[in-house]
Amino acid sequence: MSFLILGGELLRPQGLVPKENQVAETLGSLLGHLWGPFGFWFMVALVFITFCSTVLSVEDGFGRMFADGTQILLQGFGVRGRWTNEKFLQRVYIVVLLAALPIAIYLFFGEPVGLLQTAGGIEAAHIPIVTALTLYLNHRMLPKELQPSKIIFGGTAIAGIFFSVFAVIYLLQLLGVIGSGGGSS
Question: Rounded distance, CA 28 to CA 112, Å?
Answer without folding.
Answer: 18
